[in-house]
Amino acid sequence: MVVITAALIQAAGDNHPGLNMALSISVPTKYKQLVEEAGNTCPEVTPNLLASLLTQESGFNPKAQSPVGAQGIAQFMPSTWESSGIDGNGDGKRDVWDPADAIPSSAKYLCGIAKDVNDVPGNHQDNMLAAYNAGTDAVRRYHGVPPFKETQQYVRSISSLADQPAKGGNPGTSITALQGATAVNAAQEKLGTPYSWGGGDASGPSTGSCCSPSGKSGADISGFDCSGLTVYAYAKVGINLPRTAAAQYAASEPIKPDQMRIGDLVFYGGSASTIHHVGIYIGGGYMIDSPRPGSKVRFSPLDEMTDLYGVARPIHSTTKEI
Length: 322
Hints:
The protein is built from 11 helices and 8 strands. It is of the alpha+beta class. It folds into 2 domains: 6-162, Lysozyme (Orthogonal Bundle), CATH 1.10.530.10; 177-314, endopeptidase fold (from Nostoc punctiforme). A 6-stranded antiparallel sheet has the order 3-8-4-5-6-7. Strands 1-2 form a two-stranded antiparallel sheet. The protein is globular, with a radius of gyration of 20 Å.
């Protein structure tokens, strides 16, 4: 496979002004034109790369807000938006929650970063993405992508997605990045829903059953347990997950931690047969999950539990709930 880098795109643009890589990965229809236009802001930013970044940042959710305060479809921190946000649609205001402003602002911000780190050794596109995640000072200080696990994973995830077309939804294939992001968005809409042992299904919250290992009953609580939340979220993209966390792991494709992307399932336990918890990865070292009796659906750090067993990506299949 030929990897199209910013340097190759720059060379092509020198010979063919206005040429940039076509959009070939999944983007919601209402945002396609915005991504295609903004993805031609400068040679270093392609439509595919911009779409991949937005998938990683928010899953194309214009109302996304991270646990640390990043806002909107492009996940701008308020201070960065104040200095770099633009009025992309010409309506007289700069609105971080409006994709028509945030998407072109993201591209313009990337282009500015590309210039700031242009003289840093290494892959120019990787340095640009690393600077977007960790700041230009960090990229300069380390003379390239800094040795931060989160930043290195961020760069790998976006570059890998940008360099491949979206997969189809055929049975037996793993889900697309956009499907994973859509599942995250569905789960995020249920933030604050009570935990209910045995609760939740493809239709939404439901009363559960008795009893959890600690003796708690969900019979009088409408909500989700951990695997009920994942069943619900993935039903929104046509994936019929098994009901228990261990069965969900068996029905998914194990992946390496450095290949994680938004929407992947994160499993905890001592072995495949003793998996006791599952969450949905949302990026930045966090997941969305329904952790335990007495809690609610929330954002949790991946290292909140010490027995991380593995990460897996749901696949298209005809598996029925069990």
